[in-house]
User: Fold this.
Amino acid sequence: MKVNEVARSIKNMEIRGAGLIARSAAEALKHSAKEFQGEDLTALMRKLEESKDILVGSRPTAISLWNAVQATLRGSQEATDVEELRNIVVFNADRFVKRSSEAVQLIGKFGAKRLKDDMKILTHCNSKAALSVIKNAHSRGMNIEVYATESRPWRQGILTVKELSDVGIPCTLIIDSAVRWAMKDVDAVFVGADTICSNGALINKIGTSQIAMAASDSRVPFMVCAETYKFSPRTLSGEMVEIEERDASEVIDAKLLPPGVKIRNPVFDATPPEYIDSLITELGVISPYAAYEVIVREFGQASIFEEMGD
Assistant:
């Protein structure tokens, strides 16, 4: 897909989920480089920078999008001609997509080791990484039952129960406000991540922080499944994560409410690290307080990602 089409699809929630957003952005930059006509290196560089800005602006909270773009353009400044630049972008995009997909599989394997037979798991939204853990445990013969939140207003929980039911995993769909009620029957919580901050805090689908607090009160382990490209090097310099708010029409038709009533529709919230038992990554299972070390390892040294600019 072209850059503008991908950006529009991300904004319209046709492409959603931090991993899919990241891979789609990498593929869009690859398409942009491949379709470029001519031998003007400066023109191609300018086109890729413009494409980068369009893609990053489509979903400001998801650091996976920023990191995917940085990874795809890594080394592009060293190109001496159009063909070399095109090859760099294509190679980087393919490598990012491959490593992103492999990361989900590794998270599934590592996370499944935290599960036991006859456990009841609660999950929120529709995280491919979290579902990889559950499906991996099921494939190993474990009897796993899942509680999935509806995840308003887009109701991604329906996608979750469909995906898990298709492979034979028993599911119960609950309304978001029933999390504390359900927690008495839950053995562990597994959620995904949009962004992991340098202090170990989690930015994820709105409602995640309330689930974490309910789990903490009930002494239920709260696990976060996150690929390392969802860790934010930008937070090392003190930059705050922007919490996106979407249109009120996604929540309710304003005509149904009395005049003057305001509607807020935040997409994400922040969960402090003290509510997180473990981060499950493709590098292994770590403490949330090790997020800083992961960021330094992945972004402070030669890696798949471009070093952060200003």
